[in-house]
Amino acid sequence: MDNRNNIDFDGIGRFFEEHDCINILTHKSPDGDTLGAGFGLCAYLRAMGKKANVLNSDGFPERYSFMYEGYYDMEFEEECVIAVDIADTALLGASLLRYAEPAAIDLCIDHHISNKFYAKQSYVDGSASAACLILYRIFKHLGRPISDIIAKCLYTGIATDTGCFKYENTVPAAHIAAAELMQYNIDFANVNRKMFDIKSRARLKAEMISTESMEYFYEGRCAMIIMTTAAMESYGIEPAEFEGISAIPLTVLGVDIGITVRQRHEKVFKLSVRTTDKLDASAFCRQFGGGGHIRAAGCEINGTLEEVRQTVIEAVGRLLGMKV
Amino acid sequence: MDNRNNIDFDGIGRFFEEHDCINILTHKSPDGDTLGAGFGLCAYLRAMGKKANVLNSDGFPERYSFMYEGYYDMEFEEECVIAVDIADTALLGASLLRYAEPAAIDLCIDHHISNKFYAKQSYVDGSASAACLILYRIFKHLGRPISDIIAKCLYTGIATDTGCFKYENTVPAAHIAAAELMQYNIDFANVNRKMFDIKSRARLKAEMISTESMEYFYEGRCAMIIMTTAAMESYGIEPAEFEGISAIPLTVLGVDIGITVRQRHEKVFKLSVRTTDKLDASAFCRQFGGGGHIRAAGCEINGTLEEVRQTVIEAVGRLLGMKV
User: Does a structural domain hold residue A239?
Assistant: First the structure.
């Protein structure tokens, strides 16, 4: 628990009681956790008789529609603002910029260790697998009944942020919460199918093209995908569809460092680097002015395609202590 | 719980106590659950001071090696035999055929509702997500300490049989067991990476080729992959690598019936059919003499490639009430 927290579960309960017209902010490029927390909290507050809305800079993607079925925007004069799953006001996005002002946000509930404590009151638990896991604890602590839609939202957030309980950030409490939440009418298998299995045809094609172009180096310990803007355009697929491909190289048996290089501008290339527990992706990216987590990091490298390719291959060689 | 069960947890505990030299049978084409149950039970029995081995008709695949690190075959005269995760002696496989004789197996612990009750004593719980979940309950009931390797084996079985807690067969108790087992030193994230993310290059290529050849019908509600033996051979990839592709068609957004057609012989084609909850895969396959589960079923159709393709497309049209 972060010692910069200045509110506890009882304080949050009082906050809910004392306010009537509440806007809930979720982060840009929304995922299952921020939307699950947003719509889950909104349903909870509405059940308390409050007026509450969920705001997002980019709108609510169709694939999460099962969380906002029956949701409608309420009319009210904003009295207070709660941010969920937002580590930094930079993540609010263009159309919510007005909330990036100091003290514009009253309460922040988040699970990012990197949280900037920008809100008047904050409850941050970096050890929680998901913002939805914190909300679930809060709701249990406060004791009001949870509806099916709230349970579905919270389950979705916990499942998506843990990769369906697959990743290292899955804590025992995430499993316990899932065991309890799945006893509501939430059709969790269908939620998981939507979150983890279903892809658009364009996305599937983007993955196929990427996989096809993958190259291997250093006895197969490094796999690399390079996507130029020209290549992406030639397939008639939106660059956004290529956002999910960074995970592909590291899924190949024997690969310890998977690199995805995407062209941003003529001489600007963005690297996404993923590593097994044998290598440090963050250290690798720092040499190019980037950074991130130990197993997933990123950086930008300037140069022509051939220069960047060569730079990356040589850097990987140094990391592995191997020659091309 | 099946009322044909003729042994309970206490009885199983006495069975363990009363026998000293135990062979544990696992099913052919072994998966994470049968091996997790086999090696988990073996480690448990050895910790009791018993002699125990794990037997499999096809050997132990390398990708499960983390479960049998440190395992070695013990020398002993077989005194009794326990089958784990085996619904039917037909699943023993060629080199364990000697155990298919009546009453050759003393005890069966299984979670398949289709269990044939071939053993002298059986404990079958069709509502359990995995055989490993039943074993975990047994071990907890009996009260002896569980070692890290036992915990790792049981976690692996539960995770693999539930698709990492993704599928409908995930019961709350599976999550609870995971929450408890992950508190041992089991590196569950690495287990999950090995079980769910890592693929051989050949497998990845097989998936790519399959995805590339996928066709869509009926406004995208049906997706179909056809793999001829000639096509599989032309890519120089073992047909076995194509076993996992049946799940691909149904992962496409909008698809309600995904069909994979693999050529077995010149005029024999095997269909794998997967459906969303809108359609019945089993009923679809029954019209061709096949069957299976409501969401995943199979059948064989004889004819030339073009005949089979046409037959399937027309049958899907009837199912959807649509014209090509």
Answer: yes
Helix (H, G, I), strand (E, B) or coil at A147: coil
Statement to judge: residues B257 and B315 lie in one domain: yes
Confidence of residue B240 (pLDDT cuts 50, 70, 90): confident
- Residue matched to tokens 């960074």: A246
End-to-end Cα spacing for chain A? 46
As for the ipTM of the complex, it is 0.91
Whether residue B170 and residue A189 make contact (CB cut-off 8 A), yes or no, is yes
Instruction: Write down which residue in B169, B196, B223 finishes a domain.
Output: B196
- B262-319, pLDDT tens digit by residue? 999 999 999 999 999 899 999 999 999 998 888 889 999 999 999 999 999 999 999 9
The answer as to whether B214 is a domain residue is: yes
* Chain B residues 153-172 with CB within 8 Å of chain A: 163-168, 170, 172
Least Cα separation, residue A199 to chain B (angstroms): 5
Q: Tell me whether B215 touches chain A (CB under 8 Å).
A: no
Judge contact between A92 and A100, C-beta under 8 A: yes
Count of structural domains, chain B: 2
pLDDT tens-digit map of A299-308:
999 999 999 9
Q: Are residues B263 and B150 in the same domain?
A: no
Query: Of A176, A200, A216, which is closest to B175 when you measure between CB atoms?
Result: A176
Whether residue A1 is predicted with pLDDT greater than 80 in this model: the reply is: no
Dihedral sign computed on CA atoms, order B24, B27, B31, B34: negative
Q: Is B201 on the interface with A (CB under 8 A)?
A: yes
- CA geometry: angle B308, B311, B316, nearest 5 deg: 125
Residue A219 has pLDDT above 90, yes or no: yes
| Residue B107 and residue B160 in one domain | yes
